[in-house]
Specification:
- The chain is globular.
- The chain has 8 helices and 6 strands; from the N terminus they run E-H-H-E-H-E-H-H-H-E-H-H-E-E.
- Residues about 1-5 have low confidence and may be disordered.
- The protein has helices spanning about 25, 40-55, 70-80, 105-115, 115-125, 135-155, 165-175, 180-185; strands spanning about 15-20, 60-65, 90, 160-165, 195-200, 205-210.
- Helix 2 (about 40-55) packs across helix 3 (about 70-80), helix 4 packs across helix 5 (about 115-125) and helix 6 crosses helix 7.
């Protein structure tokens, strides 16, 4: 799905992205969105395991959302990887999709209240948002400009970057990097604390994309 370029292209930078480990509301089956809930013990262990997968990689810059579950996943992973000290940058542009009126609701109870089809539309449509919330299209409208302004210039300067964020903010970024259609990205599953490596050329064409 990503954009292959010629085999002679030179790798200029590496980008690693991963979703946060299990949060308390993941465990409780609730819509979380922008609610700032902590990691569970399992989530902490997942973050440590992610760190083992990125051990040996060097990052010049590290980013996470403004939510503690992503920030702590990033910090735990870097510590687990024995990575040299690095000052992470946090920004709400990388926050999870805002679920509006659904935030805090049990997912099963929400299906019982609104119907399975309606909830599926809210969760899996590209451009239909839940009441007072964001669609994936809305999420991409803040993630991609931030990436292009803040992160892309560093990658073009041959700097390696790691990002810890959320299922939907990462979907927006993966769609952009791998040239996916809305239909393709909505079917793309992102496991908790599963690092995904991109090797990029100087124009940020993807030379390689793989889960670590």
């Amino acid at each position: 799905m990503y954009n292959f370029v010629s085999l002679g292209s030179i790798i200029m930078a590496q980008l690693v992205i991963f979703r946060h480990g299990q949060s308390q509301w993941n465990l409780e089956n609730k819509f979380t969105g922008w609610v700032d809930v902590p990691l569970t013990e399992k989530g902490i262990e997942e973050a440590k395991h992610a760190g083992l997968k990125i051990e040996g990689y060097h990052f010049d810059f590290a980013y996470a959302s403004n939510l503690q579950r992503a920030q702590n996943t990033l910090l735990i992973a870097l510590e687990s990887a024995n990575h040299p000290s690095i000052q992470p940058l946090f920004n709400e542009a990388l926050n999870e999709r805002m679920y509006g009126d659904l935030q805090g609701l049990d997912k099963t109870e929400t299906v019982n209240k609104f119907g399975e089809e309606q909830v599926k539309i809210w969760r899996r449509s590209y451009d239909i948002a839940p009441p007072n919330g964001e669609s994936l299209k809305d999420t991409a409208a803040r993630v991609i400009p931030y990436f292009e302004k803040e992160i892309a210039p560093k990658l073009k300067e041959n700097k390696n970057v790691v990002i810890a964020a959320h299922g939907n903010s990462l979907r927006a970024l993966i769609m952009y990097l791998e040239k996916m259609t809305p239909e393709q990205i909505l079917q793309f599953e992102i496991g908790t604390a599963q690092p995904r490596l991109y090797e990029l050329d100087s124009n940020l064409n993807v030379l390689k994309a793989q889960n670590l």
